């Protein structure tokens, strides 16, 4: 039947008004899987190719720093007679005689230094020392900075004013000068401590390295404290903090369970970015001769020793310099990736 085009009657099919089946209902439901903050952040991090590449580089550096020296044929303090200043993949006269006699001699991949020590293992051990110092120093900064910053922000009033004025004063103290002064001040006490039972490791590490840790504990926490303070000043006005106070929760519990927990994403990002800064500081101080005790190597001390022979043996400077740059760049790129992944303001 032809329908009048001017008619107001709707041309409807009765089948369109039948109840939908369960299959049709499920096909129309579009839901996104519920994910936690950490799961969503890790998913966003995995999409960041630069950050993932940085993680791979850091893992490789740690592998060569902590695992490979366990089965490497040379030690970092072993001096090979007649193997002074060898170029990479070359042998001394005595080693060449052993090779001619049919014996196998592991090559010096990065050559040797002026004392005939294999340079590859010294770079590995230097990377280990720099990584350990960077991680321990960052842990010290995190604990002290997070504690003092959270107390200042949560207490407020005169407590906050006094702590922030102390922070301002600490910012003006030159760290290198303080390390030199502490090295002289702690020399005798650390010598007595090293002679005590169970503290022989103090002599191995050296008083300069302990002075560096003391300086990190005294000076470098101020940036972390300011960051935590700014975050907690915002979070402490939240409803869940008010509810916790109304329920009679102690201030220490509110700081630990509510405020710092909600700052955890920011803490991880800031800590990751602090690691390369600590590594650079340790390498710089070791370059100046204020780092680990001889014969322990550090990337900074290796670069310092190679300065005098730069024109003759440039690879002795290039290898530790490239290693330092690679480690610092990888941690910085990883920190940027973590910030992009866990910052709610940057979510699409």
Describe this structure in words.
- The chain is 66% helix and 0% strand.
- The protein has 348 residues and is mainly alpha-helical.
- The protein contains 16 helices and no strands.
- The chain is flat and about 100 Å long.
Number of strands: 0
Percent in helix = 55-70%
Low-confidence runs (pLDDT<50, min 5 residues)? none
The residue-averaged pLDDT reads 82
Strand content: under 5%
How would you characterize the largest beta sheet? none
Task: Give the secondary structure arrangement, pairings included.
Layout: H1 22-28, H2 37-46, H3 49-71, H4 93-100, H5 119-155, H6 157-170, H7 175-185, H8 187-194, H9 201-205, H10 207-218, H11 222-235, H12 239-246, H13 251-262, H14 264-287, H15 299-306, H16 315-342
Question: Which labels suit this protein?
Answer:
mainly alpha; 16 helices; 348 residues
Offer a quick outline of the entry.
This protein has 348 residues and is an all-alpha fold.
């Amino acid at each position: 039947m032809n329908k009048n085009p001017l008619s107001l009657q709707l041309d409807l099919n009765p089948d369109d008004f039948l109840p939908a089946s369960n299959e049709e209902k499920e096909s129309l439901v579009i839901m996104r899987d519920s994910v936690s903050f950490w799961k969503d952040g890790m998913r966003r991090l995995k999409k960041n190719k630069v950050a993932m590449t940085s993680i791979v580089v850091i893992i490789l550096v740690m592998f060569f720093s902590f695992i490979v020296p366990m089965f490497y044929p040379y030690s970092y303090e072993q001096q090979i007679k007649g193997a002074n200043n060898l170029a990479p993949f070359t042998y001394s006269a005595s080693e060449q005689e052993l090779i001619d006699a049919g014996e196998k001699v592991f090559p010096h991949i990065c050559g040797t230094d002026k004392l005939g020590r294999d340079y590859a293992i010294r770079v590995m051990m230097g990377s280990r020392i720099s990584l350990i110092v960077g991680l321990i120093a960052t842990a010290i900064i995190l604990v002290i900075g997070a504690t003092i910053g959270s107390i200042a922000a949560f207490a407020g009033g005169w407590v906050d004013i006094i702590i922030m004025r102390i922070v301002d004063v600490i910012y003006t103290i030159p760290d290198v000068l303080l390390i030199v002064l502490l090295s002289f001040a702690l020399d005798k006490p650390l010598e007595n401590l090293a002679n005590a039972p169970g503290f022989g490791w103090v002599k191995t590490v050296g008083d300069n390295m302990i002075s560096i840790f003391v300086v990190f504990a005294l000076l470098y926490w101020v940036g972390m404290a300011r960051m935590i303070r700014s975050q907690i000043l915002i979070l402490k006005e939240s409803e869940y903090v008010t509810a916790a106070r109304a329920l009679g929760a102690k201030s220490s519990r509110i700081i630990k369970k509510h405020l710092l927990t909600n700052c955890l994403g920011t803490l991880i990002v800031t800590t990751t970015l602090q690691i390369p800064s600590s590594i650079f500081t340790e390498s710089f101080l070791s370059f100046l001769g204020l780092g680990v005790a001889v014969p322990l190597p550090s990337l900074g001390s290796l670069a310092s020793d190679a300065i005098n022979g730069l024109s003759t043996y440039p690879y002795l400077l290039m290898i530790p310099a490239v290693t330092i740059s690679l480690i610092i760049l990888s941690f910085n790129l990883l920190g940027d990736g973590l910030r992009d992944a866990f910052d709610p303001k940057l979510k699409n």
